[in-house]
Write a structure and sequence with these properties.
The complex is a heterodimer of chains A (about 700) and B (about 675).
Chain A: H1 19-25, H2 32-40, H3 43-55, H4 87-108, H5 115-123, H6 131-143, H7 146-157, E1 163-166, E2 182-186, E3 191-195, E4 203-204, E5 215-224, E6 227-237, E7 250-254, E8 267-271, E9 274-277, E10 286-288, E11 294-296, H8 305-336, E12 338-339, E13 349-350, H9 355-390, H10 397-425, H11 437-444, H12 454-477, H13 510-537, H14 542-548, H15 550-574, H16 580-600, H17 602-607, H18 613-631, H19 634-639, H20 645-648, H21 659-668, H22 671-674, H23 678-694
Parallel strand pairs in A: 1-5, 2-5
Antiparallel strand pairs in A: 2-3, 3-9, 4-8, 5-6, 7-8, 10-11, 12-13
Helix pairs in contact in A: 2-3, 3-5, 6-7, 6-8, 8-9, 8-10, 8-11, 9-10, 9-15, 9-16, 9-18, 10-11, 10-12, 10-15, 12-13, 12-15, 13-14, 13-15, 13-16, 15-16, 16-18
Chain B: H1 7-14, H2 20-28, H3 31-45, H4 60-81, H5 86-96, H6 105-118, H7 121-132, E1 138-141, E2 157-161, E3 166-170, E4 178-179, E5 190-199, E6 202-212, E7 225-229, E8 242-246, E9 249-252, E10 262-263, E11 269-270, H8 278-310, H9 329-364, H10 371-399, H11 411-418, H12 428-447, H13 484-512, H14 516-522, H15 524-548, H16 553-573, H17 575-580, H18 586-603, H19 607-612, H20 618-621, H21 632-641, H22 652-664
Parallel strand pairs in B: 1-5, 2-5
Antiparallel strand pairs in B: 2-3, 3-9, 4-8, 5-6, 7-8, 10-11
Helix pairs in contact in B: 2-3, 3-5, 6-7, 8-9, 8-10, 8-11, 9-10, 9-15, 9-16, 9-18, 10-11, 10-12, 10-15, 12-13, 12-15, 13-14, 13-15, 13-16, 15-16, 16-18
The chains are: A alpha+beta (about 700), B alpha+beta (about 675).
């Protein structure tokens, strides 16, 4: 069993676990530590993660020996003051933490891309500057030639340069062909001339660009020998390596305050005929020869590879943990908070005992687990296919692209809604930044629009589905069945016209609800294909017809992604048969995730009579019963994520449950209470006295 | 202004099918209201005293200071401009105050009205004038660290001491610390504190007490009073929401508000006659919040729709220039139903305000009969509209892509300012359950053979003798999806059915278990669903009835389309309910989806004009993306350049951290 001290805040209240919290942990129905190991992918990963966390100061000194930490806790990584900083201070803290982390990594020999660095990122909750530096590295590895990697990767790894990735522009986002920045090849000097021809061509949003970066990987339209060759990536020096001043022809700065990410200097960049050597165009998939001849080595899609790499990484390292943390905080707080009475004679009840509260929170908890397992299988699939793609075998790229786009859209959408629901489920206190929830929400919500706007991503999935569907139709009659990509193989599987469930309990069978989701996804994909066809038959051009049917394409893509998630979750649980207690607890979450989805989209299931009205009632009954069953495991299921108190940084979500003491104490430390009140002297006093002087 | 209008917006405005000015009159209530509102807004716009730096670039402490300064000037200016009508004061404040948040706001919205409603004549004489003139600044302290919506759970005590004829106010535990009241942290020097009254050894429940907090002249907290700011929040940076801990703090007996209940000098407690009247304040605040929901959503729609007309992206046909993103079906599908919702909620808000004033007159004549229904309805509608608006503002923000995430869009600010509406003045789930209680009561009444009236009268039509719930052939199911009236019927049927299902499930639980409370808890998800369906019906009904009152044909036509879109979109989102209850057939649901897409195309040419009709000043939107003139990119760039991080070209962090990083590794 996990020791409480392991994750404690280590302050005046930690010595005592709140009795309402203690009672929740008294008789866990499964071994929480084992579940943590499963989530980490093995006990040795858990141990390593904790050791890394300890070395970053996430532990109180008393626990260090227990965790066999390598070094003493480091005050540089404290998150306590986070809620009281200005944008400038946040930025400085982000840079400072990054600096210390890199020093530490160097001392301890943590290499780029290592598990240790991933765990360190998690332990400091990702509040680090220079995140784009690593995106640059990944892009270099994906798009650079071997010589380019040999030249730039060491500079990057040793931080002799600080690099960013500059794609989106003021007037252009997800639609890459619309980017306006130009790279015109000058064969005389063998240079590219990088230029922002209009205001809307200004690069806008890249992280670390505003103040930090010395180099940017600029995505620009290549023009060589008079022909436009589409988007390519160029390494452009933007700041002096001596004094950090902007280089001639470069205008750059910070884009101003945002909802969150204050520690990142998202920036703008204008290039005025800036010249860079020919060798600075990344050339794994395309080259410009000295005389200006353009040589294509990859497909049109190969430049998208770096985006796939980034998306896959984001799901497990950035997006889903934000929902997990929101669940931890809201569920822990809900066993401490008491409100009204369930029975007249009882004391006020824990709010988690209210059905409506369970109905708010448990679907979010179930989703967090679902996304963990789905994200893991996506990562496995990615690791299988990445090597082949780098060797220019692109056969798996379309499926990888569709899966990573669709899951990014689904997971970011649900995590955002879920985190916000968790925040509001904490009532008024969820509005206080000290709860930790506002920053989780404002951070996760950015993921719906960054790295590909979700609607655009869903529609890319829809195109892939449509193609696969037509392929399935074409091969249906013929003897030689061309095999469909794994994730869409269900398009050719035999379909049920009616759901066979007869009792509520039948809906607790993964096989049954997975097929139900498959049915709805197939039906929507078929309908979207038909609608598109109908539009075209009535004379609309293909592109116009597509635009006139996008609402249903969107629905089809969402249903498909939900199906993929339900299926991956259910399959992952089958592999846990050696851990029956854990399997049972997680199975309820999987059931809940599937059924909650069915109830939210009941219209789609009733539409063609696949479910009857009576069956929807059964789903509802099964769903409500699950809430009740999950209730007793709720705290254990959130403990298993194993976030330290420091990393949650929430007055409501601490492991020991001493919510109110901490909230009161933290509030007293706010600068509004420690730095006087100039507004009183300037305005309130004259106001209070103006009345008297009139008498 | 000499600045030219963006070409896209110019074209949009030229293509409108109606005159936006006339629609603005309808929204304001009359042409005269529009005129006067603009006159007042111009007073502010033209007054240099009201100028200040962009708040997005200020720290929290600076924002608080700006708000206090504005509060102070506000008092003077309202006097100076001779504005006294409550509506006019509201217009003034809405444009003048930052996010409509003011640190001394609670003095006027809670302290003074509570004094008026619950104070005796003597108390009013003593306190009212100084509160109105801000000699004292008061706030209203109800919620505690550990207790919110459930008032009976509050722990603060007021114990009467007959020896000195004083009350001893005390915060016995950490959880009893007053927490959240606006203006409590730094601004107010008095508070009306809600506390459990103890006298002669007995607890008499919650009562209100006037408690001085800070010394007049120095503003220092009085001995026995611990008061401060509760720290940073999601939004409301300008407001010093506060905490208050009282350590056996004594106040004179006269400081208990005693219009209803009284404590005599010897400690005898005198019970109040009736307290139904306190419903009145809550009803008023909640109906005001419905109007605010409409307003916040209207702002968000204005920004997102104008920006979507200016932003070009991607391609519909290859080779053609990038289209306005408002031409994408997915973008229309995101935004137009929200625009329709903003209009729907506006009419609901107007209706509630009107009803409140009407019923208030009845109350004046001693007729309280309509109060329970109004109370139940306002609770549910507050929850229904705030939940919907909360999600809708976020949807508008995301519809602006990455730029929506920047504070330059104004949307994050609208969101964080609006979202507490879901939890304050009654947490939404609790509100929905209050409405459900009323619905269950009405259902029981009908079952007992009594007719009910008002918005729940549909329950009278429930075939109560029905044995099998699936057989609904007796219900008229011929829904015409092109008629707002017929769609209202469809929503009515859905509400009736979901109320019935919740009632039956509740009965089943009661028959299985002993306690009624446990049964209630185990049915609460169904109960909330029933309340939502009821509120949705009321909204569709009010919107469709509004159409009949509109004279101008082109405006009637465009609002009719919005009303249809609102009703049909709701059906498509809740198709399961309509199918399961056999209110609509599969074919009809398919037609609904189809009709929605047609309506998107029909509304498209009027979209920008429909948001123009909300008539928001640019300063009130606070958005670079939503500017009336549409010159988005130029101003976005200018805005960014003034950001504090750009004050020096090389940030000090470079020397402190980056340079060492580059050299040491």
């Amino acid at each position: 069993m996990g020791s409480p001290a392991r994750v404690s805040m280590g302050d005046a209240w930690s010595w005592r676990v709140h009795p309402d919290m203690e009672s929740e942990r008294r008789r866990p129905s499964f071994d929480v530590e084992r579940l943590t190991n499963i989530l980490d992918g093995g006990a040795e990963n858990t141990a390593l993660r904790r050791r890394v966390g300890a070395s970053l100061g996430s532990l109180s000194p008393a626990c260090l020996s227990l965790a066999e930490s390598i070094i003493h806790s480091d005050p540089e990584f404290s998150l306590k003051e986070n809620y009281f900083m200005s944008q400038n201070e946040h930025y400085e803290a982000g840079v400072k933490k990054k600096f210390h982390l890199q020093m530490l990594a160097r001392r301890l020999g943590w290499s780029e891309g290592s598990r240790e660095l991933r765990y360190a990122f998690r332990a400091v909750t990702g509040d680090l500057a220079l995140g784009l530096h690593h995106i640059f590295s990944k892009s270099l590895q994906s798009l650079g030639s071997e010589e380019q990697i040999a030249k730039w990767a060491p500079l990057c790894d040793q931080f002799r340069i600080i690099a960013t990735y500059a794609q989106t522009e003021l007037g252009h986002g997800t639609y890459l062909q619309g980017l306006e920045t130009e790279a015109t090849y000058d064969a005389d000097t063998q240079e590219f001339v990088m230029h922002s021809p209009t205001l809307t061509a200004t690069k806008w949003w890249p992280g670390d660009l505003g103040r930090s970066a010395t180099h940017a990987l600029v995505l620009a339209q290549l023009i060589c020998s008079g022909a436009r060759r589409g988007m390519h990536a160029f390494i452009v020096p933007i700041r002096s390596l001596q004094d950090h001043s902007l280089l001639p022809g470069v205008t750059a700065g910070d884009i101003g305050p945002k909802m969150d990410f204050e520690y990142i200097d998202n920036g703008f960049l204008q290039l005025d005929h800036v010249r860079i050597p020919r060798e600075n165009m990344l050339s794994r998939f395309a080259q410009v020869l000295p005389d200006g001849t353009y040589v294509k080595l990859g497909t049109a899609q190969s430049n998208y590879l770096s985006m796939v790499v980034v998306r896959v990484g984001l799901l497990l390292d950035e997006i889903n943990p934000l929902l997990e943390k929101a669940c931890v905080i809201a569920i822990r707080y809900s066993v401490i908070r008491r409100q009204s009475r369930l029975r007249p004679s009882d004391p006020e009840a824990k709010v988690l005992d209210y059905q409506t509260q369970q109905h708010k929170l448990f679907p979010q908890l179930a989703a967090a687990y679902a996304f963990h397992f789905t994200g893991t299988s996506l990562r496995d699939f990615f690791q299988e296919s990445y090597g082949a793609i780098l060797d220019r075998d692109f056969s798996l790229l379309p499926e990888l692209h569709a899966l990573s786009s669709g899951l990014k859209a689904l997971i970011s959408e649900f995590c955002t809604q879920g985190a916000e629901l968790c925040r509001r489920a904490c009532g008024g206190h969820g509005y206080s930044k000290l709860s930790g929830l506002p920053s989780l929400v404002s951070r996760v919500t950015a993921s719906c629009t960054y790295e590909g706007e979700n609607t655009v991503l869903y529609l890319q999935v829809a195109r892939f589905l449509l193609k696969s569907y037509l392929q399935a139709q074409a091969s249906a009659g013929s003897a030689s069945k061309t095999s469909l990509p794994r994730s869409v193989a269900y398009l050719t599987a035999p379909d049920l016209a009616r759901c066979p469930a007869q009792r509520a309990a039948d809906f607790l069978r993964p096989g049954l609800y997975t097929r139900a989701w498959a049915h709805v996804a197939v039906r929507l994909i078929r309908d979207s294909a038909h609608q598109l066809q109908t539009q075209m038959q009535s004379g609309a051009e293909e592109h116009e017809a597509w635009n006139q049917t996008t609402v249903i394409h969107l629905q089809a893509a969402k249903a498909h992604c939900y199906y993929v998630t339900v299926k991956s979750f259910a399959e992952a649980l089958q592999r846990l048969d050696k851990e029956p207690a854990i399997q049972q607890a997680l199975q309820r979450l999987c059931d809940l995730f599937a059924l909650h989805g069915i109830l939210s989209a009941a219209g789609d299931f009733l539409h063609d009579g696949f479910l009857s009205g009576a069956q929807v009632d059964m789903v509802r009954t099964a769903y409500l019963d699950l809430l009740f069953l999950i209730r007793k495991d709720a705290i254990s299921l959130t403990d298993a994520f194993d976030f330290t108190d420091q990393c949650l940084n929430s007055a409501l979500g601490c492991y020991d449950g001493n919510v109110y003491e901490r909230l009161f104490y933290w509030a007293q430390k706010s600068p509004t209470n420690t730095q006087g009140n100039p507004a009183y002297q300037k305005y309130l006093r004259p106001l209070l006295q103006s009345w008297r002087s009139k008498l | 202004m000499a600045v030219t209008m963006n070409q896209d917006l110019r074209r949009e405005r030229a293509s409108a099918s109606f005159n936006p000015e006339l629609l603005t009159h309808i929204l304001d209530g009359s042409p005269e209201n529009t005129r006067r509102r603009r006159e007042i807004e111009n007073l502010i716009l033209n007054d240099p005293d009201f100028k200040h730096e962009d708040l997005n670039f200020l720290t929290r402490s600076q924002r608080y200071e700006v708000a206090v300064r504005k509060s102070a000037t506000l008092v003077k200016k309202i006097r100076e401009f001779g504005i006294s009508d409550p509506d006019e004061i509201m217009w003034f404040k809405k444009l003048h105050m930052v996010n409509f948040v003011e640190p001394v706001g609670l003095n006027f919205s809670m302290f003074v009205p509570t004094l008026l409603n619950q104070g005796t004549a003597a108390q009013k004489e003593k306190w009212l004038l100084s509160a109105k003139g801000l000699q004292i600044i008061g706030t209203y302290a109800q919620t505690e660290l550990g207790h919110g919506t459930h008032l009976r759970g509050l722990e603060t005590t007021a114990t009467y001491d007959p020896e000195t004829q004083e009350f001893i106010l005390n915060s016995p535990t950490v959880t009893s610390i007053k927490w959240w009241p606006g203006g409590l942290g730094k601004t107010s020097n008095h508070a009306i504190v809600l506390a459990q009254l103890y006298t002669q050894g007995k607890c008499y429940g919650l009562h209100a007490f006037i408690v001085p907090l800070r010394e007049i002249g120095t503003h220092k907290p009085l001995p026995g009073i611990t008061v401060g700011d509760i720290g940073p929040k999601f939004g409301y940076d300008e407001m010093d929401n506060g905490y208050l801990k009282m350590d056996h703090f004594r106040i004179p007996r006269e400081n208990m508000l005693m219009k209803y209940a009284q404590v005599k000098p010897d400690g005898t407690y005198v019970k109040p006659v009736s307290n139904k009247l306190t419903y009145g304040t809550m009803v008023f605040i909640r109906s005001f919040l419905v109007g605010e929901a409409a307003r916040s959503l209207a702002k968000a729609c204005t920004i997102a729709i104008r920006y979507s007309a200016v932003r070009h992206q991607s391609e519909i046909k290859p080779g053609e220039p990038e289209p306005q993103i408002l031409d994408f079906q997915t973008q229309q599908y995101k935004l137009f139903p929200l625009l329709a919702t903003a209009y729907a909620f506006h009419f609901v808000g107007a209706y509630m305000k009107e009803t409140y004033h009407r019923i208030n007159e009845d109350i004046g004549h001693g007729d309280l009969s309509e109060l329970p229904e109004l109370h139940a309805l306002t609770a549910g509608l507050k929850a229904f509209t705030s939940w919907t608006t909360n999600a809708a503002i976020e949807a508008c923000r995301m519809a602006c892509g990455g730029h929506g995430y920047s504070h330059c869009s104004g949307l994050p600010n609208i969101y964080v300012t609006f979202t507490p509406t879901c939890t304050f003045e009654g947490e939404n789930t609790v509100m929905m359950l209050q409405t459900a209680r009323f619905l269950m009561k009405s259902y029981d009444q009908v079952h007992a053979g009594k007719l009910v009236c008002g918005m729940v009268s549909y329950l009278n039509d429930l075939p109560s003798q029905r044995i099998q719930p699936q057989q609904v052939a007796v219900w008229p199911t011929v829904v015409d999806i092109d008629s707002p009236h017929s769609l209202t019927e469809a929503y009515r049927l859905r509400a009736a059915r979901l109320v019935e299902i919740a009632a039956k499930n509740l009965q089943t639980e009661v028959s299985h278990r002993k306690s009624k409370e446990v049964a209630w808890n185990l049915t609460s998800v169904d109960l909330v669903r029933a309340s939502e369906a009821h509120c949705h019906y009321v909204t569709v009904k009010l919107f469709s009835e509004q159409l009949l009152k509109i004279q101008d044909k082109p405006i009637q036509a465009v609002l009719r389309n919005l009303c249809l879109l609102y009703a049909l979109y709701g059906i498509s989102q809740k198709a399961g309910d309509f199918l399961q209850e056999n209110i609509l057939t599969d074919t009809q649901v398919t037609q609904v989806h189809q009709r929605i897409k047609e309506l998107l195309t029909v509304i498209r040419p009027d979209a920008v004009t429909l948001v123009d009709a909300f008539d928001f000043q640019d300063v009130s939107l606070g958005s670079v993306l939503g500017r009336y003139d549409g010159n988005v990119y130029e101003n976005l760039f200018e805005w960014a350049k003034t950001s504090p991080l750009n004050k020096a070209e090389v940030h000090e962090s470079f020397y402190k951290h980056l340079k060492p990083l580059q050299s040491k590794l």
